[in-house]
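thought: fold this chain, then report.
action: predict
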Amino acid sequence: MSLEEEIRISNLNNIELMFIIATIFLLAALVQKLKPRFSLSYSINSKPSYLKAKLIAKLVTSATIYLGGLYFYFFTDLSIRSRYSMWGIALSYIIYHPYKWGFAKIFEIREKNKINTP
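observation:
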């Protein structure tokens, strides 16, 4: 195998891993939707707004990772060594927590506004 082929296979493996991670997030969201008590953090915080924020964060993260994988597959030259696909794998897990925090804050503010309005 030439160096170009090895680089292409390596990039395709990274993209495949991105799709696997996105599928795991999507399956976790579906399991959480069907059975919310299955979550590890359910005993710590079981407010409906927090559970809704976690569900939406998982769905948005999954969609973001799928779009990133599709972008790398169709719009980048896979025969050139690049760190972008590797960054996509790392960011795929990192972006879930800011999404979860942001959606939890949004739903918390919406709950407070519903309570305070007459």
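thought: worth noting. The chain has a mean pLDDT of 82.
final: tokens above.
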